[in-house]
């Protein structure tokens, strides 16, 4: 007798968000059962009620307070930031634990900053390295909640950095830096969503746990990104640089710059015959898709 594998059912949190929208689209394109919600994560009663109604096998938590227009907002709205990024995120993980549901959290790698042990071009940050960047309140909430959430046996934490989509959506890192008057020029790890979001579904479906740096391998500087953008998408594009010191005068919160070590992720995905392209190659492919999509 062959027993049918129980069908997975995904519940995506942060339903109106950018990453959540991409996840829903991918799951639908794979013909998977998916429901999205905008229920507030900190509302324990409503969260439990929804879990009991929908009965998901997997929660994908792409909800979080990122600030608008940017993370500077979180500096002045600390209680609201805590409510979402600490109380809400933990509450959702805990409710999933109580209902025996796997919970994937779309977290951030912006909890690190180049230091003496991890200089530009040197050793990159591994999953177990303690966070060393709390220059923004947003990052501080994210690193602290991760330290606690890691103790849950049902939680998979995926650390995105400067996510990039194949269009010029306002949340896309590339869109942001093409709109700034001036940009810094520092190598960073980036997450090309087309490469990595399908991988998040593979990891979730296989009930993988723990923390993964969720970026393409390698690091790429702002100028390298913009040069590739100019090459493939907008030949007329020009930009100006400024230093980190000059940048600090026009922003309220500090910004993290770092390279994450993606070895753990790459090795894990090999088990599922899934490869993630190196970041320069990934950007070439991303901008080729973007140009094909008619973006200018
Ligand atoms: N985009 C990036 O640059 C980036 C980089 C690294 C990591 N991440 C992380 O990835 C996740 C998704 O980011 P995103 O770019 O998709 O952000 P987004 O477009 O702002 O989406 C986040 C969504 O979460 C919702 N949300 C906020 N607090 C909530 C709460 N307490 N309960 C329920 N929903 C809540 C927001 O709804 P409301 O607007 O109604 O509050 C919003 O729809 C976030 O956790 C973010 O920190 C993003």
UniProtKB/TrEMBL annotation:
RmlD-like substrate binding domain sequence ranges: 9-179
Which InterPro entries does UniProt cross-reference here? dTDP_dehydrorham_reduct, NAD(P)-bd_dom_sf, RmlD-like-bd
The domain of life is: Eukaryota
Which Gene Ontology cellular-component terms appear in the entry?
Answer: methionine adenosyltransferase complex
Name a GO molecular-function annotation.
methionine adenosyltransferase regulator activity
Q: Name one Pfam family in it.
A: RmlD_sub_bind
Cited CDD domains: dTDP_HR_like_SDR_e
Instruction: Read off the PANTHER family from this record.
Output: DTDP-4-DEHYDRORHAMNOSE REDUCTASE, METHIONINE ADENOSYLTRANSFERASE 2 SUBUNIT BETA
Protein name in the entry: RmlD-like substrate binding domain-containing protein
Source organism of this protein record: Tuber borchii (White truffle)
Taxonomic lineage is: Eukaryota, Fungi, Dikarya, Ascomycota, Pezizomycotina
